[in-house]
Design goal:
Number of helices: 8
Number of strands: 8
Mean pLDDT: 81
Helix content: 25-40%
Structural class: alpha/beta
Bound molecules: uracil
């Protein structure tokens, strides 16, 4: 029997795992043979026992070798994101003539297309201006959003609101939505089939709004729109081209709640967005 891990160390491990989760590295598996832990690859001898939420043993995360990673170019000039192989998630999405946000909401209806409907209270469609120049895309509703039917109204949402206001805007000036419109149980990341089912509606929302800039909040949004396996740290803060629009990925506000030191980086990203939108940057304090 392995020695139980002291609680303080357990806490540190849990924090570290959450950090990896925020970077989009979610599953860590324990090797039952007792050799070092690796992240969720497909090794047949590694048991698929998720230990992210309850780290009871010491885990040494190794960087994931990601197959089929998309080359997401740093953009001084904006260049297209290169798709890896096979059709993009969005290629199957037909253009809807004279599409509107109410039409998309109507098409979603009382959706039961994926398993997320089983645990949801309210569908969280999106909120804000249909003419917004700036769209924020999050991951999926949490408990507060599920209860109210509105995106980003919980703790992370309050921080997002503050960020929007720091940019000199109000929530009603932008549009806020998520990759999936129903709350994943226990706030787990949406699974690929859920993303595949729901994200065409996101695509339609963005196509209707035609924003100048899309900001992806966190790895799930970025990976979904860019169709990449790359970790968000590799392209965070860089201008990318997405279907003819400018896209920037930054950290999710929930990540900032746990890692306030990263707020400066996000603020720098948002200042780039402000410049792009012609918003006035805050004056530098003179010393
Ligand atoms: N986190 C998200 O990604 N979306 C929300 O709407 C709320 C929290």
């Amino acid at each position: 029997m392995p020695e139980p891990t002291p609680e303080s160390l357990q806490q540190k491990i849990e924090e570290r795992l959450r950090y990896y989760e925020d970077l989009g590295i979610r599953l860590f598996y324990r090797d039952r043979r007792g050799s070092p832990i690796s992240t969720g690859g497909s090794h047949p001898e590694i048991s698929k026992e998720p230990v992210v939420r309850a780290a009871r043993e010491i885990i040494v995360p190794k960087p994931i070798e990601l197959p089929n990673a998309v080359v997401t170019r740093p953009l001084e000039r904006i260049e297209p994101v290169i798709s890896p192989s096979g059709p993009s998630l969005f290629e199957a999405v037909d253009k809807v003539a004279d599409d509107t946000l109410p039409k998309i909401r109507e098409d979603i209806g009382d959706c039961t297309r994926c398993k997320l409907h089983k645990g949801r209270h309210k569908i969280v469609f999106g909120d804000g201006s249909a003419k917004a120049q700036l769209v924020f895309v999050g991951e999926g509703p949490g408990a507060d959003e599920d209860a109210q039917g509105l995106p980003f109204v919980g703790r992370a949402g309050k921080l997002l609101t503050q960020m929007i206001e720091a940019m000199g805007l109000q929530r009603k000036d932008v549009y806020i939505c998520n990759v999936v419109k129903c709350r994943p149980p226990e706030n787990r990341a949406p699974e690929p089939d859920e993303v595949a089912t729901c994200s065409p509606y996101l695509l339609r929302q963005i196509d209707v709004i035609q924003p100048k800039v899309i900001v992806c909040l966190g790895a799930v949004a970025a990976k979904t729109l860019l169709q990449t396996n790359r970790g968000i740290t590799q392209f965070r803060g860089q201008w990318l081209e997405w279907r003819g629009r400018k896209l920037m990925a930054t950290y999710h506000p929930a990540y900032l709640l746990r890692n306030p030191n990263a707020k400066g980086e996000v603020w720098k990203d948002l200042q780039k967005v402000m410049t792009e939108l012609g918003l006035q940057l805050p004056k530098k304090k003179s010393s």
